[in-house]
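Q: My collaborator sent me two sequences in one message, no labels, and asked for predicted structures for both. Can we handle them in order? The first one she listed is below.
A: Yes, handling them in the order given. First sequence, followed by its structure tokens:
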Amino acid sequence: MRFPLLTLLPTVLLSLGVFSQVARAEIPDEFQPLVVRPAFGFSERLVDLTPAFEMSKQVNKPILVYLGAADCPPCKDYTLFLMRNKDDMKAALGNVVLVDIRTWLKGPKLSFKIYDKAYTVAEFKARIGDSNKGLYYPSWWLITADGKQLRQLPQGSTNFTSVESHIRLIKGS
């Protein structure tokens, strides 16, 4: 039995549309994140957080930095978590300057730039007061406009299992 290509085309296109939404590892656009993509480089992936710090000062809100990676399965799970719970999460995430660092797991070393200074991951974590060992994906940091951590947030794949616990981490209550 032969199927004409035109009868399969709508199914294929629909499947591609559905899976392209699921396969992304990023904060959904509905949350209006400040998207930061590292500039291409062979020796370094430089993430400029300066616009987030400037915005934080302007709107008087803390910064919630999310570090995800396109090739990170737990990061894709986090995207799905946000999409499934967007109504509940929108209010909590609306009280912060939400930064979505979009990068990948493999590649040159990651560095953070704040105004005129670049920091290695270890230097950045020390500057803000993060005591987590190493760097795991996904990672979150809740920091002030002055670059001080408001509270220690966990890192890794199991820290967004419920809406309530996630909101509590952001709000600190």
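Q: And the one she listed second?
A: Here it is, processed independently of the first:
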Amino acid sequence: DAYAASRAETMQNIESTIVELGGIFQQLAHMVKEQEEMVE
């Protein structure tokens, strides 16, 4: 079933995008924390 296959592929793409975004947010949080430490 082509529809089910393309749906599964789309879900995998969304999942990897979310994982990527999570990594970016972690980097941002780390940078913010480092800057706060520099200010003190």
